[in-house]
Design brief:
The chain is an alpha/beta fold and 525 residues long. It has helices at residues 2-16, 19-23, 71-83, 95-100, 102-111, 116-122, 143-146, 151-154, 163-171, 175-179, 196-202, 217-227, 247-254, 280-285, 300-310, 333-339, 350-358, 427-440, 448-452, 461-469, 487-499, 518-521, and strands spanning 45-49, 55-59, 159-160, 185-190, 207-213, 236-239, 290-295, 326-332, 359-362, 380-381, 412-419. The protein has three domains: 2-78, no CATH class; 151-396 and 403-419, Rossmann fold; 436-499. The strands form three sheets. A seven-stranded mixed beta sheet has the order 6-5-4-7-8-11-9, with helices on both faces.
Length: 525
């Protein structure tokens, strides 16, 4: 009876005690420490000692979460915290650890490169390091800091870094071959980077002038150094604008940077009257003193710039209004493989077709192979291959932007082109060509007769007209697939469609504002 009353009093005393005193029991009836967490059955246990009786075990309400510490543990912890100063967050290894590993760290820091440029040199991929040193640029090991690569803005840009490769590229442009005919060359270079190829061009005595278009501050700084060179600087003109922007080329014309060619090209503003005996047609047939060269970005805008240049040839817009401009590009292997593909290939689309209709390919000596710029780190900078990131038109970066990797754009190649003397297209028929290719290549695997029926009612009759009036190499089998048509067949089809009296009135959406003159505001695009 007495023991039952003791238990009752103990329980009542425990329940009447404050909550915190019920929670900080140190031991149970068996003098064993209670577990810090919940018991095996998921319940929390607590004890309290009655005034005159033994310690009693009492079941309390089930709770969740981490159990509080006992009073003894809490007191010991608070004493320890008050005795010891707060520990500072460690940014580096402690002095003891650093002292014991100083020799190993110093040895490793000397042996291991820190930057990707140093890693490229240490890896053995750069066989002769001196070809990466340029007189107007800082040491190669500092390039990672001087030319930082940001994925959103700089991942698509690259430049030839190897001096021997740059020299070979400059020699592949046909400048010396044209000089043998008595024609010196003026080069317009887009995306020159810090001017490695630019320097090789300036050193060529057959180059009259080099006009570069660059808007990246990190590159302009070293182009300005090249401009200060007493021997090369007078031949260099720097336009601080992007080669992708069409108004940038107006600055070349408005600045009078082509006035020294007024006796060799036509339609310049400085020419009050055309040179006697020179017309657009006769000037187009002769060799051009102008050359356009660009290290095209690996983004979609590099591909877009190339396509717009090619589509400007037939109507003689852009720089083609002055001369039969020669062109050379370094571009990613994806677009290079397409423009060199053959009819009846899955890669043969509108841009390759227009390229082969409008231009002739010029051999580029030893750089014409698919692996001419391999390994990448031995020829180009950055040492990692470009990923084809999007070229943003704003500096507001979206942190979670899904930037495409574009793995098919890895690697670059060189191509050199010259517009054909006889294009086979006029401005009007080329407009038809754009309309036809835009609509027919949607169903390029089908027969040409089936695809023509979708363009306009009765459009298949154009094939009958072509086979009766066209040249033998222009005639088309109605069952021939769209993607297998040759450039000559496309030229004949465009001409006959233009003559067809039932053709649609509006065939091409130019996207230009109403009342805007192309020739007044830019060079024709």
């Amino acid at each position: 009876m007495r023991s039952a009353l003791a238990v009752s009093h103990a329980a009542r005393g425990l329940l009447d005690a404050p909550v915190w005193s019920r929670s900080f029991a140190a031991a149970g009836p068996s003098r064993l420490a209670l577990p810090n967490a919940c018991a095996a059955d998921g319940r929390r246990w607590s004890t309290s000692k009655a005034a005159d009786g033994p310690e009693t075990e009492v079941k309390v309400v089930k709770r969740r979460g981490r159990p509080p510490r006992s009073t003894t543990e809490a007191k010991a912890s608070s004493d320890k915290e008050s005795a010891e100063p707060p520990e500072r967050p460690r940014r580096r290894a402690s002095a003891k650890t650093a002292g014991s590993s100083t020799s190993a760290t110093s040895t490793r820091s000397k042996a291991e490169p820190k930057t990707s440029a140093q890693k490229g040199r240490k890896s053995g991929s750069l066989m002769h390091s001196d070809v990466l040193d340029h007189s107007h640029l800082p040491p190669y090991e500092e390039w990672d800091e001087i030319f930082p690569v940001r994925r959103a803005f700089g991942g698509h840009r690259y430049f030839i870094s190897n001096r021997n490769t740059a020299r070979e590229v400059a020699a592949s442009l046909g400048i010396d071959k044209l000089a043998a005919k008595g024609v010196k060359t003026t080069v317009i270079e887009a995306y020159p980077g810090p001017g490695i190829i630019t320097r090789e061009l300036l050193q060529n005595p057959n180059v009259e002038k080099v006009i570069v278009l660059e808007d990246t501050a990190a590159h302009l700084k070293w182009l300005d150094v090249l401009k200060e060179d007493p021997e090369l600087g007078p031949k260099l003109v720097i336009i601080r604008a992007s080669g992708y922007s069409w108004p940038s080329y107006n600055k070349i014309i408005d600045g009078g940077h082509l006035d020294h060619l007024k006796d060799r090209i036509w339609n310049l503003p400085c020419q009050q009257d055309q040179r006697e005996g020179l017309t657009d047609e006769t000037g187009w047939q002769g060799p051009s003193p102008l050359l356009f060269f660009g290290q095209l970005p690996t983004s979609v805008y590099g591909d877009q710039l190339y396509a717009q240049i090619i589509f400007a040839i037939a109507a003689k817009r852009w720089l083609f209004r002055f001369t039969r401009l020669r062109m050379a590009f370094t571009m990613n292997k994806a677009i290079l493989g397409r423009i060199t593909s053959k009819p009846d290939s899955r890669d043969f689309t509108r841009v390759p077709l227009a390229t082969q209709c409008m231009t002739d390919f010029i051999p580029t000596r030893r750089l014409s192979g698919p692996n001419a710029f391999e390994p990448w780190a031995a020829h180009c900078f950055p040492t990692r291959q470009p990923i084809g990131a999007r070229l943003l038109l704003s500096k507001n970066i979206i942190p979670a932007a899904n930037v495409p990797k574009a793995t098919t754009k890895l690697g670059i190649g060189l191509v050199s082109l010259e517009p054909k003397k006889n294009l086979g297209f006029t401005a009007e028929t080329f407009e038809v060509f754009e309309y036809l290719t835009r609509n027919l290549f949607v169903t390029k695997s089908q027969s040409i007769s089936t695809s023509m029926k979708r363009i306009a009612p009765g459009a298949a009759n154009v094939l009958t007209m072509l086979n009766k009036r066209g040249e033998p190499d222009e005639q088309i089998d109605p069952e021939q697939a769209v993607h297998s048509l040759t450039p000559a067949q496309w030229a004949g089809l465009s001409r006959m469609f233009y003559l067809w009296p039932f053709k649609p009135n509006v065939m091409l959406e130019s996207g230009r504002p109403t009342g805007t003159s192309t020739e007044e505001h830019h060079l024709g695009l």
